[in-house]
Amino acid sequence: MSNLFSPLKLGKLVLTNRVIIAPMCQYSAEDGAATDWHTIHLGRMALSGAGMLILEATAVNPRGRISYGDLGLWDDRTERALAKSLSAVRKYSSMPIGIQLAHAGRKASTQKPWDGGQVIEPEQINGWVTIAPSALPFDNDGPIPDAATLEEIDGIVNDFIESAKRAERLGIDAIELHAAHGYLLHQFLSPIANQRSDQYGGSLENRMRLLLEIVDGVKAAVSDQITLGVRISATDWVADGWDLDESRTLATVLQARGCQFIHVSTAGLSPLQEIPVAPGFQVPFATAIKQVVEIPVIAVGLITDAQEAENIIASDQADAVALARAILYSPHWVWHAAAELGEQVTAPPQYLRSSPHGTPSPIK
């Protein structure tokens, strides 16, 4: 039996296999509201045979969007729009669906990637003043963000809580808090971006405070049927930045606070990062986190080969693998992996005859 295609329990949620579709921004929302593009895209992903689909980084307030095209979940309008897409998807798929709740912090107010991805200045169309732990820009010549006041921090905590409540009303199965890739929660964690002198800055305990307040608040606000996890960048890849040792400490604290999985990525906090990019280059960080916790750990990053994914699980380097660009490029990656590893995945009956492998089919 394939390890990759064995069940995995995340809290009370049981996945049929250990392939997870990672959050992937589509930059196709209208004022935060999901559009027909989301219905088409999510429907395609939900028929992939993966164990779970996690929706793209979803802003908890308008200021927290990466770009003006980001998905949001901050009011009744954005909730209704996402409900429409999810309703269509669920007619034909029973795949568990998670959502990544996020705030971009100082990396907000940008163009869409295919339009260059540059910062949009506050006085320009589709631009706004960003917010961060400290008044430090992402790039030295970039706009200076507002340093969050204590009142604004309280508001951000509440925004995450309210978005989590909306997610549960939408029937979302899992919530992933985005504390990676240089966005706001990661900014509070890293001493590069966080140079505060109050209870949210300085020591590791203080830099973790905002994330932990959000974890506690969300746990208290949603039912125990919701699986809660966190995505982290295990290192900034910058000297004197957030590092693996701090990530391991954070992981143990998150487990103690009731988190039910940790999704391990890296980088995104500083343009000075030096990343040794190679296939599976982030997997060792997931393994190092897995060594200090008992909750499932998800590995992500340039995992593109079925046998590679199988080996990661079989050798206990991680409990699941997350795919992003690989599954955009090949939406039936999971079907092909099942065929290669002698396993089966669920597929809609309309597609059953597509298998070229005879009986038994890799899809059922």
UniProtKB/TrEMBL annotation:
CDD domains: OYE_YqiM_FMN. GO terms for molecular function: FMN binding; NADP binding; NADPH dehydrogenase activity. Its cofactor is FMN. Keywords: Flavoprotein, FMN, NADP, Oxidoreductase. Gene3D superfamilies: Aldolase class I. InterPro entries: Aldolase_TIM (IPR013785), OxRdtase_FMN_N (IPR001155), YqjM-like (IPR044152). Transmembrane segments: none annotated. It comes from the Bacteria. Residues 3-341 form the NADH:flavin oxidoreductase/NADH oxidase N-terminal domain. PANTHER family: NADPH DEHYDROGENASE C23G7.10C-RELATED. This is NADH:flavin oxidoreductase/NADH oxidase. The lineage of its organism: Bacteria, Pseudomonadati, Pseudomonadota, Gammaproteobacteria, Alteromonadales.
